[in-house]
Amino acid sequence: MNNTPHPAPADAAAALAAPALGPDELDEIDTLLDDLRTRGEEIPQWEFCDGFLTALICSRRPIPPSEYLPMLLGDGAAIDLAEGEPLPLLPAFADAAQQARFLELWMLRWNEVEAQLDAPVESLDDDRTFQPEAMDMRGAVASLPEDQRAEMAGQEIPSFGQVWALGFMFAVENWPEDWAAPRDKEAAKWLDDALDSIVALTEDDTGKPEVCMFSEDGPPSTSQARVETFGEAIWAVYDLRQLWKSLGPRIETVRKVAEPGRNDPCWCGSGKKFKKCHGA
């Protein structure tokens, strides 16, 4: 990946052994993003970031940080860097140390997701299965004491996994050429079906609350249909990762314009033969 702070991808076994973001690291990154919001507009929550990161890993083309970080944390304008040139400090970060720490935490999650998606799993119960950083905010709010729940009355609370899916689709929508349907009809349908499964997770859960994804003994906050939709979205991510890996990078077709023959009239309209004009 050009202009990237990430190390070269390790093999799946080594990457699986890499540490994931534990509770302390997740608290740290939430605090870091809160601080970024004091300087940058529309800095997303970590759940959104995780969906965005996952889409980048699934993308057909390796998109460098000089493109995706400004889209996620800045004004969206890609940074023009020469080969090997380090990433400059983005305006949202307080200093280089803060940016480096964010990238370090980002890299830990990146390597974990990449390893999970490349692992040969056949069941969502497998310990190696990809686990999105999806939140059950409705379950979290429902588990609060009554007085704290009252303070949040009237606020719109996202459904389980909704913010994660919005982050994923944000990446898809901002690099449409890299997510364009392939010419092969079977592959194109594969792509459409997988994206439809993730789009379904961006919609509101209007079903009857039956389970709590926030805690096992929490009040019901999520419909069983939503849980099934979430599982389908996970398999869709695997499908997208494998689809683009099997197809490889998109080949740009360069159409060569035939030059006139040396004795043909010049294309510029001078009336001279090509060999006496622009072909000289």
TrEMBL record:
Signal peptide positions (record): none
SUPFAM superfamilies attached to this UniProt entry: Sec-C motif (SSF103642), YgfB-like (SSF101327)
Pfam (any one): SEC-C
Protein's name in the database: Zinc chelation protein SecC
